[in-house]
Design brief:
Elements lengths: L12 H36 L1 H8 L4 H26 L3 H31 L15 H37 L9 H26 L5
Helix pairs in contact: 1-2, 1-5, 1-6, 2-5, 3-4, 3-6, 4-5, 5-6
Length: 213
């Protein structure tokens, strides 16, 4: 095995790889605690304000949310295919898959920005000029507080993921990865899949629970 990628503090490439993977899993563990708290608070508030949350859910754009779900699932599948290619030493295919993944990520953000624009136009932002009135308006506003916090946080994580995938492309074009050493590709893939999973939790919370039919 080539030692070109081995940093001085590690005994072997296997040790270096295991440390990198463990570090990512440790980082994601604290992310799970963060998002888990957010989701728990969301469900708790929904329990106490069911009618307001149901009413708010009906104002969300199910079409864009569903399209974005398909986009994200596809992006993870494409990246996984790219990881398979580098394991057989095909850097060109890895780069192609990463480019497609990043483009799908950008498409997700563009669609989300369009959805936010519609939400703002319809005054679905909590405050004095909130677009819903009536007895359930308070619960509906609470839903939209969670909506904006969760979707903006997810979008930030998605933007970071796109940057990481672009970094993998840059490094792969310089020949940094091979069948022997491709741990950074795996680490970025774990992060990207985590962002995907967070959205798969957000999707039903935002668009499905409480929607008629």
């Amino acid at each position: 095995m080539s030692g070109a990628h081995l940093h001085f503090q590690y005994e072997s490439l296997e040790h270096q790889s295991d440390t990198a993977l463990d570090g990512m899993w440790l980082f994601l563990a604290q992310e799970v605690l963060f998002f888990g708290g957010l989701f728990f608070a969301w469900l708790l508030c929904r329990h106490f304000h069911p009618l307001g949350f149901h009413r708010a859910t009906q104002q969300t754009d199910l079409l864009i949310g569903s399209i974005n779900t398909v986009v994200l699932i596809t992006s993870s599948a494409v990246y996984t295919i790219g990881l398979g290619f580098i394991r057989i030493d095909d850097r060109r295919r890895l780069v192609q898959c990463c480019v497609v993944t990043a483009l799908l990520g950008c498409a997700f953000l563009v669609l989300k920005a369009l959805e936010w624009k519609v939400d703002l136009h319809e005054h679905m932002n909590p405050g004095v000029y909130f677009g819903l009135t009536g007895a359930d308006a308070g619960g509906a506003q609470l839903f939209w507080v969670f909506y904006w916090v969760a979707t903006v946080l997810h979008a930030v994580h998605m933007a970071v993921g796109i940057g990481l995938v672009a970094w993998v492309v840059h490094r792969a074009r310089k020949g940094a990865y091979s069948a022997v050493w491709h741990t950074p590709v795996e680490v970025v893939g774990i992060y990207w899949s985590f962002v995907d999973v967070i959205w798969l939790v957000l999707y039903p919370l935002i668009y499905l629970v409480g929607r008629p039919g």
